[in-house]
Each structure stands twice: as structure tokens, then as C-alpha cells.
Amino acid sequence: MADAERWKELSSTPIYENPWGKLISLKVELTDGTIIPDYVIWRFSDGVMIAGFTPEDELVLVQQYRLGPDDLVVELPAGSVDKKDVSEAAKSELKEEVGGIAEKLEHLGNFYVLPSRTSTKTYAFLAENLQLEDEQDLDVHEDWIRITKVPLEKLHKFILEGGINDAQSLATIFLALLKRGNIKIE
Questions:
Q1: What angle do CA 112, 30, 13 make, to 5 degrees?
Q2: Which CATH architecture has domain 47-180?
Q3: I want to staple 58 with a disulfide (CB 3.0 to 4.6 A). Which of 54, 86, 105, 184 is the partner?
């Protein structure tokens, strides 16, 4: 991207910081010269999200309470990269959230979570032949996670009926189904 297409960061003022990230107020200059004195962004670590399929061709999902929307969210296993290799982070999250080990783990691509307000990137993975063999090993901030398996032949209906209410999960599932050949786009 040419510099003429980028906004210029004129100053940066931290508002709040915790172990998960920083809230920052930026003074920026737009490409047309307009100054925005208080553009607020949240910088936190990148994450991984894994579309895992069992040997029986079931997609493994998790349901847990999320404070942001104050709702139960059905999503794929996911977590922070936290300075780990992204593949190792994906393996770790599968083990932690679903007690699973995948025979094959493949990086599908990356996407930004909310590019207008964060720099956070999600690394999407496909896990094949995911065996749910161990107990969950949840983080301290996760008091419970319910595991759900949806057979591939019922996934389309499950999604259309609102069974998955997390946009990152839907994007990762789409990439996984494309990679597996379950969806073909000409």
C-alpha cells in the first residue's frame, strides 16, 4: 500500500492496559488532510481458530458464556497466540477447550477481526480426524465450555438456523469447507 493511501498517526495516548491488550486514543490525519483527534483502537494479541472434524465427519463446536454480548456463544475452539507459533497455539487450544488431538492440522489463511478498531488477526486452521480423547484443561477465565458436535450433513441447516452466532467461526468454517471440497465456487 502506498503511503498516500495510509492514514498518518500523529500521536498516540494510552487509555487503558491489561494483560489482554491496550486501549489507545490516536490522533490521525486522513489521506485528504482531515485530522481526527481521538480515534480509539484496541490492540490485543492475535488469535487462532480451528474448524475441527472428527473421523465421523462431525464439526466440533464449543458453547460458552461471553460477557461482551452477555450471551451464550456457539463458536469454534479458539484462543490467543501469545507469542507462540500459530500452529502450536492451535494445537494447544484444541487440547485445552475440547481435549482433542488432530491427525492433521492445516493453516487455511488469516483475516482481521474488526479492522476498523483493532489490529487483531485470526489465523484459521482446519483440523482433520480430531480425536476427543482427554479432559478439557480450561484457562482460569473459562469456568465451563460445553462441547457440541454437528454432523457435516446437518451443518448447512444448523448454520442457517442461527446455530453458530460468532462471525469468526463462520468465516473459518467457510474456509475449511472450501479447502475440504465441501463447497465449490466456480
A1: 70
A2: Alpha-Beta Complex (3.90)
A3: 54
Domain edges within the chain: 3-44, 47-180
What SS3 state is found at 87?
Answer: helix
Listed residue (17, 40, 45, 26) closest to 113, CA to CA: 45
Cell reading at 142 = 473459562
Helix (H, G, I), strand (E, B) or coil at 180: helix
What tens digit of pLDDT does each residue of 17-48 get?
A: 988 889 999 999 999 999 999 999 998 889 99
Q: Going by C-beta distance under 8 Å and a sequence separation of 6 or more, which residues neighbour residue 117?
A: 40, 41, 42
Question: Above pLDDT 70, what percent of the chain?
Answer: 94
In this structure, what DSSP letter does residue 134 have? Answer: S
- Name the β-bridge partners of 112: 121
Q: Among 116, 120, 112, 114, which Cα is nearest to 28's?
A: 116
Give the pLDDT score at 4.
63
